[in-house]
Amino acid sequence: MSRYFPGMIPRKKKWDRSTTLTTQATPGLDKTIADLGVSKGIARVYLRVSTDEQDLQRQERIQEDARQAGYYIAGVYREKASGARADRPELLRMIDDLQYGEVVIAEKIDRLSRLPLAEAEQLVAAIRAKGARLAIPGLVDLSEVAAGTDGVTRIVLEAMQELLLKLAMQMAHDDYETRRERQRQGVELARAAGKYQGRRADDAMHARIRALRAGGHSIAETARLAGCSPSQVKRVMALQQAASETRAA
Prior knowledge:
Layout: H1 29-36, E1 42-49, H2 57-60, H3 62-68, E2 72-80, H4 89-97, E3 103-105, H5 109-112, H6 117-129, E4 133-135, H7 143-147, H8 151-192, H9 203-214, H10 219-226, H11 230-248
Parallel strand pairs: 1-2, 1-3, 3-4
Helix pairs in contact: 9-10, 9-11, 10-11
């Protein structure tokens, strides 16, 4: 059982209309939902990129597409963290905020998870434990179709749904591992050629993290407010402490 996705059902919260934002539309989600005949309702949108250098703007457009599909957007959760991490603050906050009958929308399944299959399944289980479902372009949702059937037909539809979901999540993780291996190989080649200098530090992000921590915010709060992962907060503060000790010595 994952320490982050234990199938929890936290305290219920009311959704807040003030969190709704307006952006441009993007094709895909409306057609996916219309083709399935899925009823519209309340949705929460999850947007994620892996690094601080990447931009969330391209994914922002999915909000208007969801509205055109008939959804009311109860919350938008923006994250700059690896999809292979289970301890993403905004992801966990979204799961905590979910209400029964709501829908989780993401641009693609890999925006929601690049976790190993077992952990990815626990993430989906945590979402379903709140009575919510996924609506992701390219990922067919047969849950309501299956709910209107019984017997062998329902068993087959539910099995197909689980198989398609597992396949999509495994492919997302495999792609992540392939990218990591290629990056490792590239670094080794650059290092052998004497050209590797490492990733350049984001001075503005580091300053923001230090300021938030100095203001009394916890590591988790700092990560959420700064738009980074808790591990990055820890690294920045460790660097600061090491620099202070060096100066003191």
